[in-house]
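Show me any protein, fold above all:
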Amino acid sequence: LWVVAGRRSGKSRMAAAVAAFLSTFSDYRRVLAAGETGHVLVLAPTRAQSRAIHDYIAGFLQSSPILRQQVLSVGADEIRLRGNICITVQPPNFRSIRGRTLIAAILDECSFWRDETSAAPDVEAYR
């Protein structure tokens, strides 16, 4: 799904809502190996934007008495949930996102990511 929307249209908040939904409203245990963690990965252009999305997700989960029960821990970049699910929110660096089992990848404001001439190119994060 690609969404083209203007400033202050709620893109990051909706990315957070999708991440919260995908991580809590499905049971992934049948597709995850024993001990494997499934990740809902949200990538945002900057650390500050990542933090805002993380806070939106935490807010969605904490505001619901039912969803609050799914939260095991809240860290700086990730929220661990029951059922071996982890929501990870960070800037797009292809070196730090490798090796995870992805349930979903949400790419927030990817038009503002660094291009292929930088040390952390957007093309590698997409791959």
Observations:
- The longest helix spans residues 47-63.
- The helical segments are 11-24, 47-63, 65-68, 122-126.
